[in-house]
Amino acid sequence: MNFEVTREFYCFRQTIKQIALLQANMNCMVKSVHTEAIRQTQQACDFTPSWQNNIESIERRYSELTCLGAFLDGKMVGHCVFDVHTGDLSQIAVWEEYHRRGIGSRLLQEATKLMKTDSIKILNVCSEFQGMPVFLQSKNIPLTSKQIDQYHIAVIPVLLGNGIKLFGSNGQKVNLKLIGTKEYNGIIELVYRRR
After folding, report:
1. Could you give phi then psi for residue 192, rounded to 5 degrees?
2. Can you give the pLDDT at residue 165?
3. In CATH, which superfamily holds the domain spanning 9-146?
4. What's 39's DSSP letter?
5. What does the pLDDT look like over 78-112, one tens digit per residue?
């Protein structure tokens, strides 16, 4: 049996008081926006959100979320989506050509002002896109855990006598949903996603 990790996600958490919100662009106007505006700016961003934080998930939970847009000269150049009651930040994104101008800091500043919790959580940040982890850590929001979203497990028909532990023993149960299977050369590949 063999498995391959296809996407790994990082999780970040920090108390709002400890977030470093210096260098926010005060010339950037931040206001409430609808999900259609989020959908449009998402196309210009340099990351692919997890299925839990994608635009379809945001649209399904729109009544529970706050969506903010960042505007320069009337043009929306970034957005932030979060739940004020849980502190969960689903998305924060700035168009690539506007990076390093304090716009992400301004969005984070406005989001934390509206939070009704004392901490913020940013879950499911894809490890492939290093810009977001660098940004969050520069704001003193540390990486707190890593998780895997999708598992590809190949069953190879060889009897070994003793089983091989694939995942270690972290003591946590992870619920998975089978989303696909493939067969090739006598091997069965099972594809699971976290529920």
Report:
1. -120, 150
2. 62
3. Gcn5-related N-acetyltransferase (GNAT) (3.40.630.30)
4. H
5. 999 999 999 999 889 898 899 999 999 999 999 99
